[in-house]
Specification:
The chain is mainly beta. It is built from 3 helices and 37 strands. The strands form 10 sheets. Strands 9, 11, 12, 13 and 15 form a 5-stranded antiparallel sheet that branches. Strands 18, 20, 21, 22 and 24 form a 5-stranded antiparallel sheet that branches.
């Protein structure tokens, strides 16, 4: 094999490691052929996008950056978060952008294994564009948590900053008078992105022309108020964000006049079976919103993975989802004081579906809202940051077979040593586990979840805080952190490239 062939192979492997274009590890990827065909390598570069946290002058926002220690990385690496600022053609920023840049939080990511924190206050905080390279890239996560003490959306709002992509599904949005829902889109690239936003209600697609061809300028963020895209006022809508050119990060901020608010992260890709983990055991009302983008209706079996096993909620044994129509159903206090996760499976033919839960805690004027989208399994590893000694609940679900899971608490952002604990989650159950806490903890810490054996594991973390009698809370799911990619190994068959 000549030098040209070797260079091409090396370049292909490097491209896969940097961009993630190679296949990602999945819980069901197994077999000798797979092992021979590809080797797992740490990603060498990753991007994260954080939406602008709030327009409220009463908002207090904290950011936590964390990269787990990953074997096989080099000795160098860096990560940074910068304000998303729209640049003009001559490369200079506008006055508005300069104001946003000055308001960005002070956060310098630390070495892998140690969280870094920063904060900001008020309603001027911009969206952030983050990049990590080298040893700082595999599994990098940034948590954005905002506390609003009064007014619309009061309570605790949290979101994991997301990687850029080209398609997003958000079941559970609203255009009614008591809701103010924005879809935030952030463009990390040097060229403009063009995006279509489609709304689907109980009778199908909602008429809208202004949702087509929305331009998101380079290195900028665009919040779109969903109620301005249509004249129809409906709850339980599903939003489809489709990127025609370029890529964006997207998340929905859903604010209610009386029920607080939170971020709604995108549902996992449409699939025949879905898991929505980590419903708080004291939830007073749970609503399920589902949508199928295909041409066929979906019939789903609805089950709750409880601490004792899979059960069927009385009166909600199945759910019929018509093609192209958003379907919402009120499950009430479905968990009845116990930890729970919703498991959706096809009753017959498998039809791709997306779904999310709106969860309410508290009663009367003390109610607060959070959202749980359907998510993918933990896979190889998943991490969530901004945990505290009190107010953190880690929920683990094993819907299809008993699983053993290792949970590692990182060092604290201001001090403390790591701690690890292993849990066994029985098949068909959800357990709110007593997650380890760093010894001598100071500040906040990260939790890393790694399946050891058994079936697939789904996870979610709840943060809770009480302010003036309001039970503020937010829930983040823990899908695979995509810290490694499968890079095909070269073999002698590639010698044909010499010709």
């Amino acid at each position: 094999m000549n030098r040209t062939t070797l260079s091409l192979i090396a370049g292909t492997a490097a491209l896969a490691a940097v961009t993630g274009f190679a296949a990602l590890t999945t819980p069901d990827a197994a077999g000798a052929d797979t092992a021979k065909a590809a080797a797992q390598q740490p990603v060498e570069r990753t991007s994260l996008l954080c939406p602008a946290p709030s327009t409220s002058d009463l908002a207090e926002t904290s950011y936590t950056s964390f990269t787990p220690v990953t074997k096989g990385t080099g000795s160098s690496g860096s990560a940074e978060l910068q304000a998303a600022t729209q640049e003009s053609a001559d490369g200079t920023s506008s006055a508005k952008s300069d104001k946003k840049k000055a308001a960005k939080p002070v956060l310098t990511p630390k070495e892998p294994g140690t969280p870094a924190t920063g904060d900001t206050s008020g309603g001027d905080a911009p969206a952030l564009v983050g990049t990590a390279e080298g040893k700082s890239a595999p599994g990098w996560t940034v948590q954005e948590t905002t506390e609003v003490v009064a007014g619309m959306g009061r309570g605790l709002q949290g979101v994991n900053c997301t990687a850029p992509d080209t398609e997003f599904w958000f079941p559970g949005v609203s255009t009614t008078a008591d809701r103010t829902d924005y879809v935030h889109m952030t463009n990390p690239d040097d060229s403009a992105a063009v995006v279509d936003i489609e709304l689907y209600g109980k009778d199908g697609a909602l008429e809208s022309t202004v949702g087509e061809g929305i331009t998101v300028q380079p290195h900028s963020s665009e919040p779109i108020l969903l109620s301005t895209l249509t004249g129809e006022k409906q709850d339980g809508l599903t939003v489809h964000v489709n990127v025609r050119s370029g890529r964006v990060g997207a998340a929905v901020q859903a604010l209610d006049d009386k029920l607080g608010g939170d971020w709604l992260a995108a549902s996992t890709d449409p699939a025949g079976s879905l898991v929505l983990p980590g419903i708080p055991k004291d939830a007073t009302d749970v609503s399920l919103i589902a949508f199928t983008p295909g041409d066929a209706d979906a019939d789903l079996k609805v089950r709750l993975a409880s601490p004792s096993g899979l059960i069927t909620p009385a009166g909600h044994e199945t759910l019929h989802v018509k093609s192209g129509m958003s379907t919402a159903v009120d499950l009430g206090d479905v968990t009845r004081g116990e930890a729970g996760s919703l498991v959706l499976t096809p009753t017959d033919q498998s039809v791709p579906v997306v779904a999310a839960l709106r969860v309410i805690r508290g009663k009367g004027t003390g109610q607060e809202t959070a959202f749980i989208p359907a998510t993918s399994p933990v896979g190889t590893r998943a991490t969530v940051a901004d945990n505290s000694a009190k107010g953190t609940t880690l929920s683990l679900t094993a819907p299809n077979g008993t699983a053993k899971v290792k949970v590692t608490a990182s060092a604290g952002s201001e001090g403390g040593t790591t701690a690890t604990q292993t849990f066994t989650i029985k098949s068909g159950t959800t357990q709110d586990v007593e997650a380890p806490v760093p010894s001598g903890l100071k500040g906040t810490y990260a939790l890393t979840v790694e399946p050891v054996s058994g079936g697939p594991v789904y996870a979610a973390r709840t943060l809770a805080a009480t302010e003036d009698g309001i039970q503020g809370f937010t829930v983040q799911t823990l899908p695979d952190d995509r810290g490694t990619v499968a890079v095909p190994k070269a073999d002698e068959d590639l010698s044909v490239l010499q010709k």
